[in-house]
Write a structure and sequence with these properties.
This protein has 224 residues and is α+β, with helices and mostly antiparallel strands. The protein has a 5-stranded mixed sheet, with no helix packed on it. Strands 6-5-10-11 form a 4-stranded antiparallel sheet, with no helix packed on it. A 3-stranded mixed sheet has the order 1-4-8. It starts with a helix and ends in a 7-residue tail after the last strand.
Length: 224
């Protein structure tokens, strides 16, 4: 009987141990589950990173938008260019359009020194006009026509208000040879950037030389 009790006790102990082992196994399994939970969290975190990567792609898309905004900036630049374009147009309005022969009157006068002839040009129009460059000057004599060469002076831009006047200078070698020389009785003057001319009376006497008379003209706006 005593032996039977011991056997029963042993069985009970074994059963208790078995239950403890099971509980331990359950705890381990539960711990595994917990461990798998952090693993899932890491996976989520990794997923979050993956999501951040698309987010970064979204940032790139935002950069694309920035590029688009840049485009808008470019439009702003175009607007700026448009504004600049208005600048010269405004200047053009302020300075006036090109002076035409039809709206200029011409006269001549003596220069500061011997061998100079001043040609005056007056704006007879009702609006401002602009002259820039060298005039064309052809000198006529009984023997033919000679064209004046351009001097080396720089050409200014001259704006003439209605009634205002500007000038240019014609340079020629005075005839001191004692001979009759060659006399030019007419000047055919063409304003800069024009095709129509006007004819003025003149009395320019130059010596006859093998190389020609050596007559030069200054740009408009440089005469004294």
């Amino acid at each position: 009987m005593h032996v039977q009790k011991i056997s029963l006790l042993a069985v009970a102990v074994a059963a208790g141990l078995s239950l403890t082992a099971c509980g331990s196994s359950d705890n381990g399994s539960s711990g595994g589950s917990d461990s798998s939970s952090p693993s899932a969290t890491a996976s989520d975190s990794s997923g979050g990173q993956g999501s951040a990567s698309p987010g970064s792609g979204g940032s790139g898309s935002s950069g694309g938008s920035g590029g688009s905004t840049g485009s808008t900036g470019s439009t702003g630049q175009t607007g700026g260019q448009s504004g600049t374009a208005h600048g010269p147009t405004g200047s053009g309005r302020a300075s006036g359009s090109r002076c035409t022969t039809a709206h200029l009157s011409f006269s001549t006068s003596g220069g500061m020194a011997e061998g100079e002839l001043i040609v005056n040009m007056k704006n007879t129009g009702s609006a401002n006009c602009t002259l820039h460059g060298f005039p064309g000057v052809d000198l006529k004599s009984k023997d033919g026509t000679v064209s004046a060469s351009r001097s080396k002076l720089a050409a200014p831009t001259v704006t003439l208000q209605p009634g205002a006047e500007t000038r240019f200078t014609l340079h020629y070698p005075p005839n001191t040879s004692g001979g009759s020389g060659e006399t030019f009785t007419q000047l055919v003057v063409t304003p800069p950037n024009e095709t129509h001319s006007t004819t003025l009376n003149a009395g320019i006497n130059v010596p006859v030389t093998d190389g020609g008379p050596g007559i030069t003209v200054d740009p408009v706006g440089t005469g004294k």
